[in-house]
Amino acid sequence: MIQKSAIIAKLRERGQNARADWVDRELPDTLDPFLHSGLLSTLHLDLKELESPASPTP
């Protein structure tokens, strides 16, 4: 899953504040990379940079 906050941060780094604001208003807190792959591609976001790290297993 991808955290919406990671997408917003990446867009703001690029100076794309209007897109970041839209993402903040319109998208859920976590995104399924497969379900939202088209949107991520449109925003030119690299999936590997955005994915949440896997939880370590004890």
TrEMBL record:
Domain of life: Bacteria
Name of the protein in its database record: Uncharacterized protein
Organism: Actinoplanes nipponensis
